[in-house]
Design a protein that fits this description.
Elements (H helix, E strand, L loop, with lengths): L3 E4 L10 H10 L4 E7 L1 H6 L1 H17 L4 E5 L2 H12 L3 E5 L4 H16 L3 E5 L21 H11 L10 H7 L8 H7 L14 H13 L4 H4 L12 H6 L4 H8 L5 H20 L25 H10 L5 H13 L4 H14 L4 H11 L5 H12 L14 H8 L4 H6 L14 H6 L15 H16 L12 H4 L3
Parallel strand pairs: 1-2, 1-4, 2-3, 4-5
The structure holds flavin-adenine dinucleotide.
Flavin-adenine dinucleotide binds next to helix 11, helix 13, helix 16 and helix 18.
């Protein structure tokens, strides 16, 4: 073998990295070149995510003894140029499934072939590769529960440890080639809290171990944004500092562990949805939603309302706490994501795509499959979606999932002095003189009225009067989103 390139993308780790194992095998002790290309497109998409990526690359490079080759530019063209420069015969990478990644890989394969090399793709960033679990009747799964049942029945591989350091060392070529522009990106400052979100493989494995030790708290605690019951592994999973097989294995057999694997399976579920229906990234899966009437976010009052939502100034504390958590940390608890998404779509009548775009700009775990399909799930237009007529009441959601107000106090300092009973209805505190006028906004809309308006608009596209079992009824079923 003339040489092998391992092209890292969403698999920035050494343990259970099947592409790395394969590359070592193909290299047979010959030269192995480790390669990552910083895409300006990714950097422009989100400062938070770029900052996490930079930290993850620094960690990976450290564990590779500083021998990660770094390019900057169009990844397909750059990997082909790198293979030509090193004279490598084969480029190995983990297969990806988003429309953008698939187009990139098709181009890369063509360019490599023209240069006399080939691209070999395998494994996936999921428990099972999207498409593996077809329905008994053929086609992909539109409902989560049967998908999850099949996944659990099918099972998935156990994770494998990192290849021995000596093995990697022996194969690695030196010195690394580094584009100065890529090094600039690598030097980006950290815009996330590293104590909460590990950003090296070592830190992430410690985070996983700590999550496993708290697994028993997960089923009851995972819906409480004010608790620390969830894993916060989503950015690490997004960039592949850990593989979901490793998470599933760490949780296996623990009380609470099954629930964690079930949540992890949502990630697989949305990935198979996107892989099967690439247009669903930005188009409604359910066609009738194309007729849904939205307010125009470039015109008043939707423009100001959208801005208030982004700033966490809607006057509804649960919504505002979520949006401020996003703004300050680049992450948001799942329950809060559902509440703020429902508010944007059903109280402000703004198209889910605007919210999905805002999330993609700010989330350090921003992932097109999980994000956009979760937005469609809330909108009612996606797979296994929450029925449109179930409208989250932000006050009741707050009382139920943040009963002591821990989440609100953490993110809305202007309300933190209030007795708990006023935290979800600060307008009552204002009425009693416990909150100064101007200290916190009055609600920008009347939830009860906007819920009726949402149902009316839904009635228009469903051909029925907008009615149904509304309100908080059926909430437990929504918890899994
Ligand atoms: C509107 C909206 C947008 C979202 N956008 C994203 C996104 O861009 N990226 C992202 O990773 N998740 C997204 N989610 C899903 C979920 O909110 C996050 O995965 C979760 O909050 C991450 O926190 P955690 O790691 O502590 O999760 P845990 O509860 O510890 O779960 C473990 C892992 O399982 C996966 N997971 C859990 N719940 C879900 C879910 N509902 N859908 C998909 N995967 C899930 C995640 O990879 C997560 O890290 C979104 C949810 C909503 C409602």
């Amino acid at each position: 073998m003339r040489g092998v390139v391992l092209w890292f993308r969403r698999d920035l780790r050494l343990a259970d990295n099947r592409a790395l194992e394969r590359a070592l095998l193909l290299a047979e002790g010959g030269p192995l070149h480790l390669f990552f290309c910083v895409s300006p497109r990714l950097i422009e998409a989100s400062t938070g995510r770029s900052s996490y990526l930079a930290a993850a690359l620094r960690g990976l490079d450290r564990s590779l003894g500083g021998r990660l080759n770094l390019a900057h530019g169009d990844p397909a063209a750059e990997v082909a140029a790198f293979a030509a420069r090193t004279g490598a015969e084969v480029v190995v990478a983990t297969r990806e499934f988003t429309p953008l990644a698939r187009r990139r890989d098709e181009r890369a394969a063509g360019l490599l072939e023209a240069g006399g090399a080939r691209l070999e793709l395998g494994d996936s960033p999921y428990l099972l590769p999207p498409g593996k679990l077809a329905r008994a009747t053929g086609g992909w799964h539109r409902a989560f529960t049967p998908f999850y049942r099949r996944l659990a029945e099918h099972g998935f591989d156990a994770p494998r440890p990192a290849p021995e350091g000596a093995l990697i060392d022996a194969a690695l070529s030196e010195p690394a080639l580094r584009d100065p522009k890529a090094l600039e990106v690598l030097g980006l400052p950290e815009r996330f809290d590293r104590r909460r979100f590990g950003a090296s493989e070592e830190e992430v494995l410690a985070q996983l171990a700590s999550f496993a030790a708290r697994a028993v708290e997960y089923p009851a605690g995972r819906n409480l944004p004010g608790s620390e019951a969830t894993s916060r592994l989503s950015p690490a999973l997004r960039f592949g500092l850990v593989h979901p097989r490793q998470v599933a294995a760490a949780m296996a057999g623990l009380p609470g562990g099954d629930e964690a694997v079930r949540q992890l399976a949502w990630r697989d579920f949305f990935a198979q949805t996107l892989a099967s229906e690439p247009k669903s990234a930005w188009e409604n899966l359910e066609g009738r939603f194309a007729r849904m009437v939205h307010d125009d976010p470039s015109a008043s009052p939707a423009r100001e309302r959208l801005e208030a939502w982004k700033q966490g100034m809607t006057g509804y504390p649960m919504v505002d706490a979520g949006m401020r958590e996003l703004a300050t940390s680049g992450w948001m608890h799942n329950r809060a994501r559902m509440i703020v998404a429902s508010f944007l779509i059903k109280d402000l009548h703004i198209d889910w795509r605007i919210g999905a775009g805002h999330f993609m700009e700010h989330l350090i775990d921003g992932d097109i499959a999980s994000n956009n399909h979760s937005w469609q799930w809330v909108a009612g237009s996606g797979t296994d979606a929450a029925p449109y007529f179930r409208v989250f009441n932000p006050v009741l959601q707050g009382k139920k999932f943040d009963p002591e107000g821990a989440y609100i106090r953490a993110h809305l300092p202007e309300l933190s002095h209030l007795p708990t009973r006023f935290l979800h209805e600060p307008w009552e505190a204002k009425r009693l003189g416990l909150l100064q006028p101007g200290a916190y906004p009055d609600p920008i809309v009347d939830h009860a009225r906007e819920r009726e308006e949402a149902l009316r608009r839904f009635g228009e596209i469903s051909g029925k009067p907008g009615s149904g079992p509304v309100g908080e009824a059926g909430q437990p079923a929504l918890a899994e989103g």
